[in-house]
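Minutes, project huddle
Topic: does the predicted pose make sense with coenzyme A bound?
PN asked that the exact inputs be recorded in the minutes so nobody has to dig through chat later. Recorded below.
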Amino acid sequence: MPVLETPCLILCPFREEDIDLLAELMANTGFMRFSLGVFTREQTRAFVDKIIGWERRGLPSQFALIHRSDNRLIGYCGFSHQQVDGTEEIEIGYRLDPDYWSRGLATEGAQAVRDHAFRDLKLPRVISLIHPDNLRSRRVAEKNGMKIEKKTVFRGFPTLVFAISRKQRLAEDGAG
Ligand SMILES: CC(C)(COP(=O)(O)OP(=O)(O)OC[C@H]1O[C@@H](n2cnc3c(N)ncnc32)[C@H](O)[C@@H]1OP(=O)(O)O)[C@@H](O)C(=O)NCCC(=O)NCCS
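Predicted holo structure (tokens), as shared on screen:
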């Protein structure tokens, strides 16, 4: 995985050494909103192992988000592999330390990941799976150029499938 850079963030591959810092974040109820709940250290380890496993297999994966001005790990943003209504999809997902919310950082990260998907990885499309009540995340997806494609049930929860295709993105502004 390459390192992506934005004005406020560095997006880099996760390393085993990140487990302790990420475990602190994943024990935070704000960070884990709209999920099954907070993670133990063991659950965080399994999550990091999964992400590193994708990378080793050359698959798109999650990036650690490093906040440039204080050099802190503040969350993650990147790719997950999901099966939605029987179809394999690549999802852009994100979680941030609540201390850093509402500064445009999730949007900045998600846009860098979307551009990487289309420009470098040449993915045909990416989605984001979002609970209808998660207004902040919906807004990030909208600012990422995504549109609601359908409503479904994902892992037992009502879920909006936001999507953008490479073609749509190219038509919008010639990126990719
Ligand atoms: C969702 C999340 C990543 C957003 O991070 P963020 O850095 O605060 O996002 P941004 O600042 O880039 O954008 C947030 C947008 O939501 C808007 N917003 C904030 N609070 C809101 C609210 N209560 N209702 C509606 N919109 C809201 C902001 O105004 C901003 O939009 P704008 O730029 O048009 O003003 C962060 O809140 C988070 O980690 N949440 C918990 C985990 C999560 O839900 N992840 C997504 C799972 S699908």
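Observations noted during the meeting:
- The domain at 4-124 is CATH 3.40.630.30 (Aminopeptidase).
- The chain has five helices and eight strands.
No decisions taken; revisit at the next huddle.
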